[in-house]
Amino acid sequence: MSQVIEVDQLLQESRELADRAKVAARRMAIASGAAKDAWLKRSAQALIERAAEVIAANARDIAAAPGYGLTAAAIDRLTLNAKRIDEMAKGLLEVAAQADPIGEVITSSRRPNGLQVTQVRVPLGVIFMIYESRPNVTLDAAALCVKSGNAAILRGGKEAIHSNRALHRVLADELAASGLPADAVQLVPTTDRAVVGHLLRMPDKIDLAIPRGGESLIRRVVDEAKMPVLKHYQGNCHVYVDAEVDQAMAVRIVVNAKAQRPGVCNAAETLLVHRDIAATFLPRVAEALIAQGVELRGDEASRQIVPTMVAVEPSDWDTEYLEKILAIGVVDSIDAAMAHIARHSSGHTEAILTRDLVSARRFVDEVDSSAVIVNASTRFNDGGQLGLGAEIGISTDKYHARGPCGLRELTSTKWVVYGDGQIRE
Amino acid sequence: MSQVIEVDQLLQESRELADRAKVAARRMAIASGAAKDAWLKRSAQALIERAAEVIAANARDIAAAPGYGLTAAAIDRLTLNAKRIDEMAKGLLEVAAQADPIGEVITSSRRPNGLQVTQVRVPLGVIFMIYESRPNVTLDAAALCVKSGNAAILRGGKEAIHSNRALHRVLADELAASGLPADAVQLVPTTDRAVVGHLLRMPDKIDLAIPRGGESLIRRVVDEAKMPVLKHYQGNCHVYVDAEVDQAMAVRIVVNAKAQRPGVCNAAETLLVHRDIAATFLPRVAEALIAQGVELRGDEASRQIVPTMVAVEPSDWDTEYLEKILAIGVVDSIDAAMAHIARHSSGHTEAILTRDLVSARRFVDEVDSSAVIVNASTRFNDGGQLGLGAEIGISTDKYHARGPCGLRELTSTKWVVYGDGQIRE
């Protein structure tokens, strides 16, 4: 009986939280750019002034981290220090420096009957961020949501709860002083997982859910959410080296795509090489990759040329390693390469390295991924690198947003029509 | 036992149908505009040449209609004749005349490192249309999906199955001759409802579901779909008449918004009138509405002025009548009007009638609907009227598409990056 009451209370609190966000969103939609930028700048300043308070809260999370079984790498990502707080403050200022997306006229026309028709960019409304134990996401998400005129509900991992509460206090304390509604940025106060489920079942109050973290978190959110979810599950990215290619360039790009930062979603996981150059190219690229500590898993044709490769298993083609391992296959043609990609890619990022114009154009037209790259590293599929500014995530879906998502992807549109008495005949 | 086998077979057939659509979608993505337009023109021609075949098939549906309990209005919408087939053929030619949305460059930049970055419009992929017994939707949906480079799976109501099969035969027979894949437009062959459920659970094969019909159909699709759904549930549209207004114009617009075609989603359902003009405006507008056969349901303040009004019930404010009934309320201010709208609107279309610039600008900025209209009829929220050309539906969601949806709303984007050896440092 007491458990039933408790669950009902969580549901009730979740509803109230979402209702407050919805009321705040109506005010955020008409907030001035000046107010939003003032909040970003005041928060950056306050973050530096209150660094000690944030670091003290963070220390509680760090102390508890072994109890949660966090790995050393996870504890490192969780750790805040003066330098990282400084970077986070700079991040807020960078978002302040971006143009305000709200109010932009996207299309306009004057209709034959004199109606003046415009399609105007407006905020989405309420955005629910669900993420793991990376406190910097609290700052990034709040900054991008507020700048794009939305209200944010933030739910970070329980392992970072004290850090997130401290960071949220800093942000929230500057809202009213900047002329923004106090509920524009809310942190879910409890770490009870049930609240996430409740909120994900409120499509009338929450316009978008954004999970950031491992694939299991994302799948859980997609399964439960009744509103749209901005997400990608995996980045199983391919580099295809065509028959005609600058081999030195190709080696440089393959090494960069695989080894420069292997743990991220736009790192390459599979290398496909045209049969005509395999005998000369594979030994060169293998040597360079091995020098970077990359384990090579080749198909039979590859291993005939570089026998030190491990034999690739069928499951390798569908694996996002996120570490220094690369699957390698020899293909007979660009068609075979694109067929392999169509079958195994997660639709994130694919690159072709070629001198051949027909190959480049075919690859760009026919490969169905969020970014298709010619003669450059897959690592460029990133909001900052493509010129969008800070990104809230990368989408491999085709609906609404595809690829890196910045401020514009957190907006919707509204048709605005001015007339002087027009009626339909 | 036999039932289990049957269900499995339907699931298997649904998978194969979706797989064929997905293969066709890859070819459709690179189909030329010339091929797509050739198909639209050939289909228009074939439709007229094969009108007798279509009308004969339609006669079978009409004969069966009373058995399905269709109303006279529904039977009328189901009925095809030479004139309607002619209109449908013209509709295909109108879509052919629109610009091809695919390949449009939406944003572009050259990055500091020399990367040439473009964001290009591409098709969504596979679109699943679920609709009722209106055979014209078969034509509209196929035309818009093909023109936008998508593969279509069509599922009309069982009451129109013979008409839809005949129309689909006409369309499908022209695909190969136009150089398009034969599976670019598929009709679900069976009327078994289970197939819809199977297909709605295939987000890896189908990119978008579009239900067109009554609210119960749409809710069922949204409940079951694992892919995005383009939809609106209701059009509970409001007209607010401000204190300062050209009353003759306001009467004309209110009558048009309510009575010109009451059964459509952009017809007005509620009239809100500023208290300052209620005493003069309500009798005028009431007389004009009653002359059009509109039943008026007023709040207490309205009925003090026009006592012949029926008393409005609280549930009226949330009702999409879709007939000649209008709820009427008197409000103290534009704020009260906007608060009423925020509470009761379905986010479809709201209009303000005013001479006051501040009121107009506030209404446009603060009302959160797919279209916000100043001094014109709500009936203008329509793809053709706003200049989009033919529409596949109207969305009251904010994600991806909002308001009338034409060719562009059936597309996604792809980032295309050309470099000459760039790597990330």
Overview of the structural elements:
The structure is a homodimer of 425-residue chains. With 425 residues, chain A is α/β, with parallel strands linked by helices. Chain A has 2 domains: 2-230 and 411-416, 3-Layer(aba) Sandwich (Aldehyde Dehydrogenase, Chain A, domain 1), CATH 3.40.605.10; 237-385, Aldehyde Dehydrogenase, Chain A, domain 2. In chain A, 44% of the residues lie in helices and 20% in strands. Chain A contains 15 helices and 16 strands. Chain A has helices spanning 2-28, 33-49, 51-64, 72-78, 82-97, 135-147, 161-173, 194-200, 215-224, 247-259, 275-291, 300-305, 334-344, 357-366, 383-386; strands at residues 105-110, 116-123, 126-131, 151-155, 185-187, 208-212, 237-241, 268-274, 295-298, 310-311, 325-331, 349-353, 371-376, 393-395, 403-405, 411-422. In chain A, the strands form 4 sheets. The first copy, chain A, has a 7-stranded parallel beta sheet, with helices on both faces. A 4-stranded parallel beta sheet of chain A has the order 5-4-3-6, sandwiched between helices. A 3-stranded antiparallel beta sheet of chain A has the order 1-2-16, with no helix packed on it. In chain A, helix 1 (2-28) packs across helix 8, helix 3 runs antiparallel to helix 7 and helix 6 packs parallel to helix 7. The longest helix of chain A has 27 residues, at 2-28. The N and C termini of chain A lie far apart (62 Å). The interface between A and B is large, with 63 and 63 residues. Strand 16 of chain A pairs parallel with strand 13 of chain B, so a sheet runs across the interface. Chains A, B: Keywords: Amino-acid biosynthesis, Cytoplasm, NADP, Oxidoreductase, Proline biosynthesis. Chains A, B: It holds the Pfam family Aldedh. Chains A, B: It is found in: Cytoplasm.
